[in-house]
Design goal:
two-stranded antiparallel sheet; five-stranded mixed sheet; 2 domains; alpha/beta; single chain; 277 residues
Length: 277
């Protein structure tokens, strides 16, 4: 009993986080990109989903270590465990915002971030998240919405249609081109430009539509999650695409099964209008 009291009164020993040198961070990042690339390739080339998921998870964690410069103290059922510090939190937030990284990698990191925040919230029971935690939680949520929307779009494609997914770069708001199977992709007048916004704002709406209109596509479909002021957003959208009859805004919940049918109908109606012109 006395031993237990002594041990419980001892101050908790906190280990210093393992920090990586610049060279180690570069090496780990390169390895992370390679493993993530192999995982993405395995998704399409093999039927071993467990192996593909493992590669994406390992690659995502390697990228996380390379970009934060810190090695997690523990990785297990409770998530990725290390004491968050401002530079590391900022680095992870930057990774989540980087549209040039594969979405599958950012989604893996977003899931790890949400699991870690949920675990800390349950164990430590703070009254609220810190500003840094709130910011990184919002970015993780945005990535998860983007991943869910992309999967929704692939499921909602009309029969005979294909989608060429784009990797965003330099602020581009284009996420994909929907076209008829076998069509010439160089002629965007026979295709639909598609984009989505996890957190729509007037500035983002302007930038995304500018990127899509620059292609001179036959149609435009802009997808946003459920928003508070849907009427105002639709009004802004219509003003920005005035003169383009085949432009449609669709507001939906990516994780709602009914959204598949709704988006399918929007894409089908848009394509019929493009085919008539």
């Amino acid at each position: 009993m006395a031993e237990d009291e002594q041990s419980s009164s001892r101050p908790e020993v906190r280990r210093r986080a393992i920090l990586l040198t610049k060279l180690q961070r570069v090496a780990v990042s390169v390895i992370g990109f390679a493993i993530s690339g192999a995982g993405i390739g395995a998704v399409f080339l093999t039927e071993n989903q467990a192996g593909s998921t493992a590669l994406l998870l390992i690659g995502g964690l390697a990228l996380l270590m390379g970009l934060t410069g810190r090695v997690p103290d523990k990785i297990g059922q409770e998530g990725v465990n290390y004491e968050a510090v401002d530079p590391a939190t900022k680095a992870v937030e930057t990774v989540l915002k980087d549209d040039s990284l594969p979405l599958a990698v950012r989604e893996t990191i977003a899931i790890a971030v949400k699991d870690e925040l949920d675990r800390r919230f349950l164990n430590e029971r703070p009254s609220s998240l810190s500003p840094a935690q709130e910011a990184i939680s919002n970015e993780a949520n945005a990535v998860l919405v983007e991943a869910a929307t992309r999967r929704l779009l692939e499921r909602a494609l009309p029969q005979g249609m294909r989608i060429s997914l784009a990797t965003r770069a330099n602020g581009s708001g284009l996420d994909g081109i929907v076209f008829e199977a076998g069509a010439d992709l160089s002629d965007h007048r026979r295709a639909i430009a598609v984009s989505w916004a996890a957190r729509p704002s007037h500035t983002k709406l302007v930038m995304d539509l500018a990127s899509m209109l620059a292609l001179n596509p036959g149609g435009i479909v802009y997808i946003v999650p459920t928003v508070l002021d849907e009427t105002r957003l639709k009004g802004r959208f219509q003003n920005l695409v005035a003169g383009m009859p085949n432009a449609r805004l669709v507001v939906l919940k990516p994780d709602d099964e009914n959204s598949v049918d709704r988006l399918h109908q929007v894409l089908e109606d848009t394509w019929r209008a493009v085919a008539r012109d």
